[in-house]
Amino acid sequence: MKALSLIIISIICILLWSSCQKVITPPLAGSSPQLVIIGTVSDTTGPYHVKISNTVSFYADNIYPNVSGASVTITDQTTGISDVLTETSAGTYTTHTLTGRPGDTYQLQVLLNGKTYRSSSTMPYPVPLDSITFDYAVKNKIQPVVYFQDPTGFTNYYKLAIQVNGTNLKRFEAIDDRLSNSKYIHAHLEIDTGIIKRNDLVNVSLVGVEKNAYQFLQEAENVAFNNDNLAAPATPTSNISGGCLGYFSAQTVSSKKRIVK
Amino acid sequence: MQKLKHLILFLIMISPGLALAQSKKTFTISGTIKDNASGETLPGATVSFLELPGKGVTTNAYGFYSIAIAEGEYTMLTSYTGYFTDTLKLRLTKNILTNVSLKTSSGQLGEVKIRSTSSRSNNILTSPAGVQMLSIKDIANVPVLLGEKDILKTIQLLPGIVSAGDGNSGFFVRGGSADQNLILLDEATVYNPSHVLGFFSVFNSDAIKDISIYKGGMPANYGGRLSSVEDIRMNDGNNQKFGASGGIGLIASRFTAQGPLWDHRGSFIVSARRSYADLFTGMSSDTTIKHSKIYFYDVNLKSNYQIDDNNRLFLSGYFGKDVMNFKHDEGLDYGNATGTLRWNHIFNAKLFSNTSLIYSNYTYNVNFDDNTDVIKVSSAITDYHLKQNFNYYLNTANKLNFGFESTYHITQPGAAVSAASSNFNNISLQKKHSLESALYLSNEWNASDQLKITYGVRLSELVVLGPGHFYTYDKDGNKTDSTDYARGKIVKSYFTPEPRFAASYQLNNNSSVKLSYDRNVQNIHLLSNSPFISATIIYLPSSNNIKPEIADQASLGYYHTFRENGYEFSSEIYYKNLQNQIDYRNGANLAGNEYVEADLLYGSGRAYGWETYIKKKSGKFTGWLSYTLSRTERKIPGINNGHYYPATQDQTNHLSLVGMYQAGKKWTFSANFVYNTGNAVTWPSEKFAVDGATVYYYGGRNSSRLPAYNRLDIGATLLAKKTAKYESSWDFSIYNVYGQSNPSDIIFRNDPKNANKTQAVQTTFFKMVPSVTYNFKF
């Protein structure tokens, strides 16, 4: 009888997908390092940064070689003001005078090893984050919940990012209002178990981005966290031309801070 | 009717060898072949004559045969695998009706007696290339997952047919994708043939009579899918006596009752299954498990009534459902429902007609929990189908098959209902309407005692109908235009002639060669977001953007039987050219997407391979070895720079080995082993950081491989009791005996223990699954 119950339990475990997981190291297609450019201009106080690095192979450490020696310019095409960025640390290029204004179009130009990479991005109008709360329903998993009104009459694209005690969490969420236009949004943010604890100071940012940057971010989020469940997994499509990875985004930021009780 | 007569006349005129046959005085013998104990008709039984070697006819799907031969005295032989051959002396001086009841050759399941009468009755030599027919008896002893005899699992051990992997419902035939198989249950399309994401097929073996599998050389009466036809027929029900049978297993139990109706003029069968794992989950202390609900059930019903000698009605239906809820209401449920009403009418000894009215529906619901509300997303496809088929037994040498069919498809690509307080608006993607019709005719011509040729054509048409907005897109998938069509307005129509040709030439008593060419067209396309378990599935008909998929296939095979039919060997090669194949644009988004067609790319493909098969059919030890070497590729502008790349289902090597051993009267042992090259998959090669998250760089579509799949299953059947009134047996089986971890899912992610590393994590569903089932019959 004991054996039978064991069998039943094992079968139920299988039925409930509590099946076996293991780490494997399959051979992966080889390729060479790719250039990654990530730059933002926002409606918060500058300076703003452009970071240039290279990819590493999947099995290497998550240390991405910085790329120095690029000449980086961001131009506010609406006002005609250009800012030539300075490489303040290896691979990080910083603006001087540029200020971000909703409605303005910004152009990024990167010159590196004789190649030019270009992108332009128009800053959307800001959408304020109303408030944040926490959901304690799942054991050991305190989940931030954001509240905001999605504006009617616009197609909006957002990125949500979390900071805990001043440190950026290594994930983000990209959402749009394709299926929820003009709704009052109350969204639970995905978070790993045990990341947020009581008495932590949590800062959530609602970042308004434009369509092309959103598409990159949304594809990047899928590839990062959901790559086993995609119709056609692929490198996220960059909104920077010239043959590199990454994105350039003129964006609005609205943040709320709260201590977890 | 007038048109039909013209068609027949036309076919008669083009039929070679006719003048010769017409010049003799001939009479027709016709009738129905049945099992004498149950009254079940026997499709595929052979009628031949000792005095006329090489002449013969097989019964159609309803057990009907008709053959015209010259006046004279004959010894008529009626034979069918697993039955004693019936011998009947007759004098033919007029048209006669001869119904034959055959007696099963042994009470033991799976044992096949060698027929010494005539090797002509061995249909491996004469049936068209690429065709295989299996009865439930043939699969009785093959071990399968959780001890359920499963006709769809067993055919995946045959050459050219491969499983899509553990935890996946699909199977691939000759390089086609899972949605390119036409799976019919009493003529009704079954869109999803699996329960619990592939644990079981939806076909309850107690309710099934047999399956015919066409990998190539499809007869003209079949159409609509590129790769294969699996034509599954339900039992009609015992019209001699009442009986019941069933099985009690660890996961599911099943029960079947059947018996005569209306004074043996009709019969019924009811067969039902239900799983009961959910009864145990409720007892668990773990809340996630406690609130999970996982079950399936299905019911098969069939009844028939013999109005008179020339008219018979059949009504059959299937209904099944799967529910998988993980916590509270989050999860998915899906199910098929089919119904078929058929009328067999024998106009005269030469003309047999069947008219079918068919309904088929598949509904798939996913419930997402967005923490405040549950959002239910439904997709569905519904078919209303009329089919009229005629068999015209013109003369000894020519048998015509013609008819027409028409199907009205309604697909719902996704509708979501959510509460007003939810984050989401209600979505209702437009329903899509289309009418798929075909007119077909073919002739089976016995050109000589050795040469048999089947040729014909299927003229198929798809009409895309309103109402709806129809969008057009540029090559980058941007919407360029939209047009509104009213209900019933024709948006677009596609007409495709599909030539079909199959020839077999018998070299001698033991060997034959076969050649076939066929074209198939497919107008219903399945999109799903994962090669594994899919949360989003969408059926789309051909449209102004999606053109009908077309496959042209040629195959050539050699067949040999030896040791008095105790062994059979076959070797086939095939080449397929594919047009209008569909794949996804990079980063395609299928969920709730009104413009989903913008995320599709179209191109061509090719598939070719070599299949070899050797089977031992008699003796205490039986079994087979099947090996396939194949390749299947796609070439689609926008993917991998327009170069050929392997399709997901490209499995270079596929081997299966099946053995069954009868040890004494009580025990039967069995084992099967499967090995295949892993599917082609898209895996990352590089990585980079985006806002802290690790994001992957992919070199190309399907440029990596899953690890090779292999598995050994063993089984044993103990016949516990066998009397005239009661029969019982125990089935024991172990699936994946040596616990090979075959992947059901692979994800690339950050190493949770080391922030500096990324890792690939594989999930295995079925690591050694033992099972016990008790079967009974009375």
Can you describe this structure?
The complex is a heterodimer of chains A (261) and B (778). Chain A is built from two helices and 17 strands. Chain A has helices spanning 2-15, 211-225; strands at residues 20-24, 35-42, 49-54, 56-57, 71-76, 81-84, 86-89, 92-94, 105-112, 115-122, 131-138, 141-149, 157-164, 167-176, 184-188, 201-209, 245-259. An eight-stranded mixed sheet of chain A has the order 7-8-3-2-17-16-13-14, covered by helices on one side. Chain A has a four-stranded antiparallel sheet with strand order 6-5-9-10, with no helix packed on it. In chain A, strands 11-12-15 form a three-stranded antiparallel sheet, with no helix packed on it. Chain B has 778 residues and is mainly beta. Chain B is 5% helix and 58% strand. At the A-B interface, helix 1, strand 1, strand 4, strand 14 and strand 15 of A face helix 6, strand 44, strand 45, strand 46 and strand 49 of B.
